Amino acid sequence: TSEPRDVVTDASALMTPWAREADVERDDYDDSVPLAAGDPSVHAGFRGALDSIAMRLKQLVLRACDDRPEDWELLVTGHSLGGALATLFAFDVAYGIDATRSLPVRKPRSKPWFLGTSTVSAVADAPKFSSINLVTLGAPRVGDAAFASQLDVAVPTHSRLVNGQDIVARLPRGFSYAHGGSTILVSPNATIWVEGENEGECPLKKGDGGLSGVVTRPAPPGSPLATLLDDALGEARSVKPFDVQSALDAATRLTQKSVNTIQGSSSSELLGSVGLDATYVEAELKMLSALASGGAIDDHLEPAYFAAVARAVAEDA
């Protein structure tokens, strides 16, 4: 993400079907075919960027391996926006590299006879690489949970390297975006955490697709939120019917109690009191702190990734 056009691509966070809805007048495909349940959706900006070069890229890749991909292992890699495009490209060629098209388009459902025959074709039994390895650095989320799930099946050897508090690796947020692959976290002290090998859950995957996965319980007794609710209920009971002054006095007391409760609680206690997962709260607070200090941006830059990996390798040597 170093050019103005990259910023525009990154900012287009709306989702679109992986197999896009096509224009029947332009390419003979029916744009009225609805998205079926379980069909993957991806970042519209990332898909559009790759779609503009995918056909030529696949042609070049086939030429590089003498049109015999089955004899080759394919390594797909990229940083930031390049990592997002690498992810989509690996998914596209996982079941065969079809260089007669760009990214997939839905098959036509029906069309009037007078529009003629379809001009869009695909290669049956497209040749496949012997294996595909996907390695990204500082890559954002690129699709929804259905895409992430299908990506893990199509490209099981998929590692996502994340340096410290890199903010881009934690975006986009909302819109049901989810991470695929195995996360590798490199911390400032050069320690490495590998999802599936080290203990604990990936903090970057907490909250994928919304907050439903991180809200664990109602506010526990004694928590700041429970205290605020008890104070509000107690003051409400103290108000005399039709007595405005009594209501004002209760509101004043409740305000002071609320201020005291909030000032006497840490940020993690306040967020945790609404039932959010503790590790999720801790990760979010670290991210906010890194944003405030500028570290979240610094950690994303390519030189920072090079330095972090070099430190980790030296520490492990």
Shape: elongated
Question: Can you give the mean pLDDT?
Answer: 78
How many whole angstroms does the radius of gyration measure? 25 Å
The number of helices is 12
In N-to-C order, the SSE pattern is HEHEHHEHEEHEEEEHHHHHH
Q: Describe the biggest sheet? A: 5 strands, mixed
Report the helical percentage. Answer: 40-55%
Query: Which sequence of strands runs across the widest sheet?
Result: 3-4-6-8-9
- Determine the strand fraction and express it as a percent band: 5-15%
Structural class: alpha/beta
Uncertain parts: 4-11, 27-34, 113-122
Distance between the termini: 32 Å
* Strands, count: 9
Report on this structure.
The protein is of the alpha/beta class and 317 residues long. It has helices at 4-11, 24-27, 44-51, 54-64, 81-93, 145-154, 224-238, 244-263, 267-272, 278-293, 295-298, 302-316, and strands at residues 15-17, 41-43, 73-79, 131-137, 143-144, 158-163, 177-178, 182-186, 192-194. It has a 5-stranded mixed beta sheet with strand order 3-4-6-8-9. Strands 1-2 form a two-stranded antiparallel ribbon. The longest helix has 20 residues, at 244-263. The protein is elongated, with a radius of gyration of 25 Å. Mean pLDDT is 78; it is low at 4-11, 27-34 and 113-122.
